[in-house]
Design a protein that fits this description.
Elements lengths: L7 E17 L2 E15 L2 E7 L9 H10 L1 H5 L4 H7 L4 H18 L3 H4 L8 E2 L2 E3 L4 H10 L5 E5 L6 H11 L4 E5 L6 H13 L2 E5 L18 E4 L18 E4 L1 H4 L2 H13 L3 E4 L6 H11 L4 E2 L16 E3 L2 E3 L14
Parallel strand pairs: 5-6, 6-7, 7-8, 8-9, 9-10, 10-11, 11-12
Antiparallel strand pairs: 1-2, 2-3, 4-14, 13-14
């Protein structure tokens, strides 16, 4: 087996301020910190970014400490499979796993999609997220997303959700719409809202109930498909939702990287779930590995860079409601020498 020289690891925290606040159940975001990991092996460089999982207190300072504690092991040449046993699911493992995939692509001269055994990637229709706000403001933002063909509405734990859905549907009669409660519903509040969701042609309800209240999904009379996000972190959570929900939202920050996400996707499909890929915000560098996973998903939610004041360069391209991540952003091969 070819032995590579000792890697050079750089891990830093970078600010990701947002253009405007984003409101969801229980939180208002004005920006994010990101852990960026860079691995250098001679002329080959691999990079990865992660924001962590805020509601699990998995945040960049702690993520950075996890990486630094493994510095010697990483620089001696850790593999993606070994990494699964060295770090728990979460942002630190995601950032490092992403950097290892990118580095492997550069070393082998093969793009990540080919290393993962996938077909050549295609542009993906992605949702554009609208935070929970006054109904008129949400409708205005829906109109401002003129290029969007799919919208994700953040709803919350108050009594104005029906107004929000009606306002956005009136503003955008053409769009595919899903809603995300971020754990904000009860069985009763969902039951009251369902007729409006049906009238508004809402196609998917994400994470209606709080974590720990999964029993509320049992015998639920809801004609609209249901996805879970916060309730499913990695593959160990899948079995609890067999027969309870239709769709699993896989996020690389939650499960700990593309390596675990690909295995999780295979298991979830075998169990009969549809797949969704989401994000915890971040620059295009954070979206690119998820874009690879998204090639296997029915629902794509990779719009994080759209809400940032500044994105990385090169960046993902958003055109006609789709996302495309070019090889030069992440996961591509080194350019041929002139």
């Amino acid at each position: 087996m070819k032995q590579h020289p000792r890697l050079e690891l750089q891990a830093t925290i970078e600010k990701r301020p947002m253009k405007a606040p984003l409101h969801i159940t229980g939180y208002t975001f004005t920006g994010f910190d990101a852990l960026v990991v860079t691995l250098r092996d001679g002329g080959c460089i691999g990079r990865g970014e992660a924001e962590g999982v805020y509601y699990k207190h998995d945040e960049p300072p702690e993520m950075l400490a996890q990486i630094e504690a493994l510095r010697d092991r990483i620089e001696r040449g850790i593999t993606r499979i070994e990494l699964l046993d060295c770090l728990p699911p979460g942002g630190a493992r995601n950032a490092l796993d992403s950097a290892l995939w990118d580095l492997e692509a550069k070393r082998k001269g093969l793009p990540v999609w080919k290393l993962a055994g996938l077909d050549p990637p295609r542009a993906l229709l992605t949702t554009f997220t609208i935070g929970a706000d006054e109904p008129a403001s949400m409708a205005e933002q829906a109109r401002a997303f003129a290029d969007a063909r799919a919208l994700k509405l953040k709803l919350t734990d108050d009594d104005r959700n029906a107004e929000r859905v009606r306002a956005v549907r009136t503003a955008r009669p053409d769009a595919w719409i899903m809603v995300d409660a971020n754990q904000g519903f009860t069985r009763d509040s969902l039951a009251r809202l369902v007729p409006t969701l049906q009238q508004g042609r809402v196609s998917l309800i994400e994470q209606p109930f709080p974590v720990g209240k999964e029993i509320w999904l049992d015998d639920l009379d809801c004609p609209i498909r249901i996805a879970v996000d916060e309730s499913v972190q990695d593959h160990t959570d899948l079995a609890r939702f067999a027969g309870r929900v239709d769709t699993i939202n896989i996020k690389l920050d939650k499960c700990g990287g593309l390596t675990e996400a690909m295995a999780m996707a295979r298991q979830a499909r075998a169990m009969g779930f549809d797949l969704m890929v989401g994000n915890m915000s971040g620059s295009s560098l954070a979206m690119a590995p998820a874009f690879v996973l998204g090639q296997q998903c029915a629902v794509i939610d990779l719009d994080g860079p759209l809400y940032l004041r500044e994105d990385c360069a090169p960046s993902a391209r958003y055109e006609h409601g789709t996302i495309w991540c070019p090889d030069e952003l992440w996961g591509g091969v080194l350019p041929a020498a002139a």
